[in-house]
Amino acid sequence: MNGSWKESSPPTFISGSDTDAAEWMQDWKAVLARDLIDFRIIFVDADSTVEEACDKLLSEDAPCLAVRSEQSDHDSPNRSPYQGLFDFSDVNAFLTLAATRHTFSLDDTAPDPRQLKIVEAAKAGRVPVHLVSNLSDKNPLISLPNDADVVSLLEVFARGTHRVLIQASDHSGEPIGMVSDRGLLAWFDSYAKAKPSFRQYLANPIQPLPLPSLDIYTSVVAALSTASVLDAMKLMSEEGVSSVAVIDEESGALLSAVSVTDIGKVVVPSQSNQILGAPLHQFISLVKAKDGRTDGADRYPVYSCTPSSTLQYAIEKLLATNAHRLFVTRESTLSSPVLAPSAQGNLCGIVSVVDMLSLFAHLANVEDVDPTEMQKHRRRSRSGSKSSVRQSPSVIAVSPTDIPRIDALSLDDLISKVERRKSVRSNK
To answer: Span 3-21, mean pLDDT?
Structure first.
C-alpha cells in the first residue's frame, strides 16, 4: 500500500517556456469566474433538520447546499445571508458520528464540543443542519467578488477548497451562483483544446510532476474489499478524505473506490443499519455496476491511472468518471480494469483535482500553494487518526441500537429501492 513513484530525488517541475506561462496567465486573468458558474445556489434554512437537508440534497440531486440564516431588516445589506455549506462529506461525518457515538468514553481525549452538541440534539430528537454544516472540515464558506477571475479561483482551489460562491455585482451579499474545482478543471481542459502550447504542456507524464509534494505519493487511504461500509465511512471521516480506494484482500489490486457521495446516496435513503455492515465489495456492486446491469458486463468505473499517464489523460479521466481523485497504479500489460497485482499490491499513489489546479496555480505565480493544507488540518483535528496510510481500517463494533432510523431491509431490498429512485430521477 505504501509506495512511491520515484525512490530517488524529488520530481522536477516540467512546464512550458516562461513566455508561454506568461501568455497563459494573461488569458486566465481575462476570464471571469462568474462565467464559470456550474451550480446554482440551493439553500436550506439553518434550523432545518439534518434529515430535511439530506432529503433536499437527494431530491435536488445537488452536490452542496448553502445553509441560510434569517436576517433582520437592519442587518448590513452587504452581509451574506448564508452561514455555511452542507454536502455529502458532512453527511458522512454525521452518520459516522451517529454510528460510533458510544465510543466517546473510550477515547483518550475529550470529544469535540461541537460533536457533543450534535449528540445532545440527537437525543432530544432534532439536529439542526447548522450544527452539521462543515462538520467534515471540507466545506468552508468562501465568496469571491463579481469581478474575480480564473487566477482568483486558483488561489482558492489550490489550497484545498472545493467550491466558492460568486457575489452579485450590486454588492447585495446575495451570491449569484457557485463555481466548483471540477468546473474550473473542465475549463482548463477546454482551454487546452484551444491553446496548442498549453495542450503540449498537458502532454507531459504525471510521474515527474510535483502533485503536489512527495507526501502525496504515500498518502493513499485504502480499505480492504472485505471491510464494512461503516469502516470506510469512519476512515474517510478520520483521514479527512472524500473517497477511499477499495483493494482486493488477497492480491492487493485496486478494485474501485467508494466516496462520501456514494454513502450519502445509498445509506441515507435506505434508513437501515444493515447496509453499514455490508462488505465493500457488495457495496461497490450496488453503486458502481450500472453499466454492467445494462449490457451484461461485469465491470466498474476504474478510478486509476499509471505514472506514465499524461496530465491530459488524468484530467479527462477525472472529468469522465466524475471523480475527485485518481489512484495511481503500477504499470501493467493487462487490459483488465483490475491491474496486475504484486506482493505489495498495485496501488502506489493518488492524484486529485486539487493537485492539478495546484500545478496551474504555480504557473500563475500564486504564492504559498499547498493543496494538502486543508487535509492536514482535518487530520490533525481527528483525534483517532494514526496514519495517512491504512491497509485496513480500524473496525468498530456497531449494534443495531446504536444507529438511528432502523428498519429490516435486506441488501436485495436496498438494491431495488435505490434502482427505483434512480429510475424516478431519470424520468423527470
So the answer is: 48
Q: What is the DSSP letter of 367?
A: S
User: What are φ and ψ of residue 67, in 5° steps?
Assistant: -85, 115
What is the total residue count of the chain? 428
What single-letter DSSP state applies at residue 216?
G
Contact 240, 139 (CB under 8 A): no
Please say whether the beta carbons of 353 and 216 come within 8 A: no
Among the listed residues 192, 181, 184, 124, the one whose alpha carbon sits nearest the alpha carbon of residue 150: 184
Q: What is the DSSP letter of 371?
A: T
What are the grid coordinates assigned to 61, written together? 440531486
- What tens digit of pLDDT does each residue of 20-61 get? 899 999 999 999 999 999 999 999 999 999 999 999 999 998
Task: Measure the CA–CA gap between 325 and 356, rounded to whole angstroms.
Answer: 10
5 within 8 A of 349, measured Cβ to Cβ: yes
**24, 363 in Cβ contact below 8 A?**
yes
Q: Are 122 and 128 in contact (CB under 8 A)?
A: no
Of the candidates 266, 267, 273, 280, the one whose C-alpha atom is nearest the C-alpha of residue 227 is: 280
C-alpha to C-alpha distance for 121 and 127, rounded to whole angstroms: 5
Assess contact for 373 and 140: CB atoms under 8 A: no
Q: How many CB atoms lie under 10 A from the CB of residue 101?
A: 18
Element (H, E) at 21: helix 18-29
The reported pTM is 0.78
Of 156-165, 190-199, 337-346, 399-408, the poorest mean pLDDT is in: 399-408
